[in-house]
Design brief:
Order of helices and strands: HHHHH
Structural class: mainly alpha
Shape: flat
Radius of gyration: 18 Å
Helix content: 55-70%
Distance between the termini: 46 Å
Number of strands: 0
Length: 113
């Protein structure tokens, strides 16, 4: 964003990060929070982590090759992916899920079921 080699318009596209959280909160407030989201997101994250192992190691998409802090792989590939996934779902997804369940009521669809 701060690299002057790129045109200002292209660099300004990064500002979607400012609008995105507001838009997401608005959408969840409008439709409600589905309590099944934690399970679905956790399973989706596992699929994405496994798929990320098949890209070039230099890319290290989603930290599927090495962790973000110590830049090392924790054991064989399946062990590393499992540890990364467990940390992600317990440190990021579970607290977020609990917070969203408290802040937003269940969706109309979930109430109908």
């Amino acid at each position: 964003m701060w690299d002057p080699r790129w045109p200002l318009g292209v660099r300004a596209l990064s500002l979607f990060h400012v609008v995105w959280p507001v838009l997401l909160v608005w959408a969840v407030r409008r439709v409600g929070y589905d309590r099944r989201a934690w399970l679905v997101q956790s399973l989706l994250a596992l699929v994405v982590l496994v798929a990320s192992r098949f890209v070039l190691p230099q890319s290290n998409l989603n930290f599927a090759q090495t962790d973000p802090f110590f830049h090392r792989q924790h054991g064989p590939a399946p062990v590393h992916v499992a540890l990364t996934w467990l940390v992600l779902i317990t440190v990021v997804y579970w607290p977020t899920h609990r917070l969203l369940m408290r802040l937003f009521s269940r969706s109309e669809l979930e109430r109908a079921i």
